[in-house]
# Entry
Amino acid sequence: MPAVVIVGAQWGDEGKGKIVDIFTERADMVVRYGGGPNAGHTLVVGDEKIVVRLVPSGVLRKDVTCVLGQGMVIDPKSLVSELDDLEARGVAAEGRLVVSDRAHAILPYHVTIDGLREQGKGAIGTTKRGVGPCYEDKVARRGVTLGAFRDAARLRELVGRALEGWAPMLAALGDRGPTVDEVLEAIEPTRARIVKMLAATQPLVERAIKDQKRVVLEGAQGTLLDVDHGTYPFVTSSTPTAGGACVGAGVGPSRIDEVIGLVKAYTTRVGGGPFPTELHDAVGDRIRKVGAEFGSVTGRPRRTGWLDLPALRYAVSVNGLDGLALTKLDVLTGLDEVKVCVAYDTPSGRTGDFPIDELDRATPVLESFRGWNEELGKARSMAELPAAARDYLRFIESEAGCPMVLASIGPRRDETIVLRDPFAG
Ligand code: GDP
Ligand code: IMO
Ligand code: MG
# Structure
């Protein structure tokens, strides 16, 4: 009964929501281990589309326990409004959602600072949800954990300390910043509700794994946005890679059975930073349109480009991937040719590695594949895919050196070819 980590192998938005929803059909628990409301994970069931940001993507499976781990940063207002939205759509989550009392609270000043900094020279195209400043507080050891919501006096003290820390930055940004009272007033309407959901989640996850339950550890963002392993400084402030699941949920590496990486059949990125296979032409526009590549959190158009195999090999390595789930293969239907980056030319020669520290001086070497025109959405096995699509998938698998466990050919649950379910048998 495995514990399975699901991670994004690119720059996020690989379709984690859809795939986690599929894999949690047979799961007992789903744990978000990092990030916060910068994530937007889309679930499509029938004609309905639901985007979750903080709540795990397994939430639609009504017997699954949902956990927000201590690696997360949580905006209490966002969480409560997300739960209300789900409730209005007939999804009762609140009774089976457990929130770590060690997770850090995103408070209004985090959002203000994130927004103001994004107006300046150092902008990196964040989601402006306060995620970076909240993690900064955590590492600076002046953060406010959700556990502090239990004790009004403690909460006041911690908010005061954080505001003192931010005062010079706020002044430099030309903002007077909120008072402690203003922050406490903003917290108050959600405080009791948040406190009710709090628990020490690490022992819960450990117990579930010990009891042979099926546990999904749901990543947010993607490998190339990882603060250590991504395209720094154009990254998020957390650890989306598989190691982050251990830290963010409190699970030892020896307890993880399998790591599955999600990869789109092409590449997208939202926000600034290097993107060597980016397309600035009609093909890029077409992929954006057909793939509906607009941010699920901010609505920003996503940058689009060809699949980057050196980057995928890097993700296989950094995460120790056991399997790949290829998503959005259907979006490439109708293209005469599909290109893929197989190597890079760099000042020191041609390499099959991802030259992460010299991407500005590296030129992608592209290989071309013949396209296909058949609609893929109805295929339920590899044999039902057109030969060209199958060849493309098999090429990716072999070049990445990692077996394919799933191919996704549409946003809906049934538009999926499952080659190996980690929870089967
Ligand atoms: P996440 O952040 O990794 O969960 O991904 P997002 O939800 O931000 O973006 C993925 C988008 O692609 C969503 O709109 C999904 O509904 C959609 N999607 C997922 N898988 C597929 C697929 O195989 N084909 C198509 N056409 N859309 C997909
Ligand atoms: P999911 O989980 C895509 C990007 C932002 C920006 C950078 C830093 O839906 O895949 P932040 O707000 O985290 O400080 O922004 O990271 N980013 C994402 N891009 N998908 C996401 O999440 C992202 N979360 C953050 O666009 O470039
Ligand atoms: Mg997303």
About this structure: Residues 104-194 form a domain with the Adenylosuccinate Synthetase, subunit A; domain 2 fold (CATH 1.10.300.10). Residues 125 and 271 are 4 Å apart (CA to CA). The two ends are 9 Å apart (CA to CA).
